[in-house]
Amino acid sequence: MKVVLLQDVKALGKKGELVTVNDGYARNFLFPRNIAKEANAQAMNELRNAEQSKKFKTDTQIAQANKAKAELEGSVFVMSAKAGQNGKLFGSITAKEISAEIKKQKGIDVDKRKITLSSDIKTCGEYDVEIKLYTGIAAKVKVEVKAS
Fold first, then answer.
1. What is the 3-state secondary structure (H, E, C) of 92-137?
2. Rounded mean pLDDT of the chain?
3. pLDDT of residue 148
4. Confidence at residue 85, expressed as pLDDT on a 0 to 100 scale
5. Residue 47 pLDDT more than 90?
């Protein structure tokens, strides 16, 4: 019997997969626990629609990430912070502050957890920063820190 899984089942398959199981296993275990439903025409149509919806969603996310990468790639963000006489900052520049600066200058909302700093920004100067926009899509920008 072919069934569509509604949950992940160990040693059988993941949620949304179409699998073939014994009739007794389906009737006595999977159906009563709402783990699976019979693969009739309606269930197959729902499965196809869910797959198309998921593909559309990932395609739009990839397109947005590529657009943001094209806009951000090679940009220089100038930030000012209080510093001592030798250029050492009072505190540091964090990923949160870089995210806010990107939002202010470019209008692109970047999550602070997606910003990768090569080292802590504790002195004035230029720093390379990588922004992970999507799996496999990253933009490299420069952050220039000046004393205020």
1. EECHHHHHHHHHHHHCCCCCHHHEEECCCEEECEEEEEEEEEECCE
2. 92
3. 83
4. 85
5. no
Superfamily of domain 2-59: Ribosomal protein L9, N-terminal domain (3.40.5.10)
One of 3.10.430.100, 3.30.390.30, 1.10.150.20, 3.10.350.10 is the CATH number of 71-147, namely 3.10.430.100
One-character DSSP codes across 22-82: -HHHIIIIITTTTSEEE--HHHHHHHHHHHHHHHHHHHHHHHHHHHHHHHHTT-EEEEEE-
103-140: b (≥16 Cβ within 10 Å) or e: eeeeebebeeeebebeeebbbbeebebebbbbeeebbe
The model's pTM is: 0.72
